Amino acid sequence: MGIVLASSSPRRIELLSNLNLEFKVLKSEIDENVNNKDEPFITAVSLSLQKALDVASRVDKDDIVIGADTIVVFEGEILGKPNDEKQAYDTLKKLSGKYHTVVTGISIIRLSDNKKITDYVSTSVKMKELDSEKIKRYIQTKEPMDKAGAYGIQGYGALLVEKIDGDYFNVVGLPLAKLEENLYRHFNINII
Ligand SMILES: Cc1cn([C@H]2C[C@H](O)[C@@H](COP(=O)(O)OP(=O)(O)OP(=O)(O)O)O2)c(=O)[nH]c1=O
Question: Domains (ranges, CATH) in the chain?
């Protein structure tokens, strides 16, 4: 029996490593199709479950598999990862000076006893007013490209954020306290 993180995200791997938990990493191969008709948290939870199920089918049935998906929601619309610099610019322009919500869905599953636990965490983030020059310079750092909402709060993106209300780690991509709560309650795993 082991723990498997169904993710290729270096942020998630690093966050989980900080807890001194032994785990393997396996990347899921699902298509991340976002359906804007569902409530955003349903999208995040559903994608996290698809990632966990995909990886669970390739590991030991006794393994506990963790999947996560982070989305950025602005005025009810999901803002995904930008496909190009123009999209990154448009996303950051939208977020400038306003509040948005970062939602991470998590799924923890074990096929041997058919346990499938899902949960999510929302964090409210207020961006500073960003002028066009600042946005362009930020895009030049290349940081926005692989990130939901076109920014990374853990990097230069920290300089764009005015304040947050909620779990910081959720914004980075893995709500550690909520994850630990579920690992303890449903799988009897005690980290500290
Ligand atoms: C808002 C925000 C997002 N992000 C990242 C977290 C996620 O990695 C990414 C959202 O994409 P995800 O699809 O959640 O994750 P991923 O494709 O990077 O990795 P995998 O599916 O293999 O687990 O955006 C930050 O790193 N910092 C931030 O401040």
Answer: 3-187 (3.90.950.10)
Q: Residue 37's closest CA among 70, 68, 77?
A: 77
What number is the ipTM of this complex? 0.88
Ligand 1 and 152: CB distance under 6 A: yes
69 is an active site residue: yes
pLDDT digits (tens, 9 = 90+) for 84-118: 999 999 999 999 999 999 999 999 999 999 999 99
CA-closest residue to ligand 1 atom 6 = 173
